[in-house]
Design a protein that fits this description.
298 residues; mainly alpha
Length: 298
Amino acid sequence: MGSKRFVMSRREEIGSGPGPVRGPRWHALRTAPVDALAVLCFGRERRRSPEALKNLVASIGWMAVNWCMAPVIYFAMQYTRYLYGLLSIPALPASIWETVPWPILLLISLLVKDFADYWNHRLMHMRWIWPIHAVHHSDTHVNFLTSYRIHFLESIFMDLSYVILLTWLGIPPIMGAIGRMLLTLHNCYVHIDVNFGHGPFKYLLAPPRQHRWHHADHPDAYGKNLAIVFPFYDVLFGTYYVPGRCDKSVGALSEDIPAFNLVAQVALPFTRWLQMGSASVKHVSAWAFTSTRPGPKA
């Protein structure tokens, strides 16, 4: 009787029917890809709310927009390179890198690229350039696809800066391409909603926790954690901010930035610049036409 009970309990645990024994570990292994995709798309809580789905669709929409704008971005880069060539700016000879081992050369490529990205990012958090970057911060459910939620004007701005800041180094194009691919992968990684802090290596390689604070819609976090890969740039320039696990809301709703209205997001830089320009003109007009002459004495 006892042996029958044991057999029945084992059948309940592993399931009845023919085939190999499949217990909880097999079930966990089978569902692991689905669970991983859910974390990538919907975060550590895996909440598939309507708002999360709308944000996901908006990020995919931005991938399509930038794909359509790729020819514009390409010709903008080609023209910039042409103008850069006319300036005859001295560059390091390519031969200088021939004796450098490729791992060190790749590390140099990553360091200079992230250094340029840090200062680009810092500029984009300033008033007049912020509208082109605000689209990236509009996601209220930050996930790995948020890294592709980039306004095409930001793409042009970033690529223009690379021509100006990095061309003179003469780093072999293949190293630059590999470095850019690795940076893109890491950029996707830091946008995943997981509480990874990297322990003692948190100042060497940016973890998702650090970048989560960058996206936090909280005044203490504004303009912080601007490095994408190497946090020691933030430490060096005074923009490092990681008080612990980030449970603050993310996005930019406090600045009335639409979270998933793709049309409004495409128009956002232009409408914001128009508003700021109009306000500046009114301010200057008020200053220019306000009389400083004292009134008549009583």
